[in-house]
Design brief:
With 83 residues, this protein is mostly helical. The chain is built from 3 helices and no strands. The protein has helices spanning 7-12, 18-48, 52-58.
């Protein structure tokens, strides 16, 4: 699944009509939010098992910071977090 919305939505974000621009921006944000939420759900199983390394790997590329998902990463080489 692509992170970017369809070209039509991206073009509408640059519209001269402020209402179209506002709606397109809202749609694009919702699409990106849904993608991130679905990717995080996939990784939550790893986190529940204490496999933070796999959680991070599953969500690489989303550009999330630890504070974004409310989860601090343990130091490299540390033991898995107990569920």
């Amino acid at each position: 699944m692509a992170l970017d919305p369809p070209p039509e939505v991206l073009a509408a974000m640059k519209s001269d009509d402020l209402e179209i621009q506002r709606r397109a921006t809202h749609v694009a944000g919702a699409m990106r939010g849904n993608l991130i939420a679905s990717r995080l759900r996939r990784g939550n199983g790893f986190a529940e098992q204490g496999r933070v390394d796999l959680f991070v790997a599953a969500n690489r590329g989303l550009g999330l910071k630890a504070t974004t998902i409310g989860f601090g990463w343990p130091a490299q080489g540390s033991r898995p977090i107990a569920a």
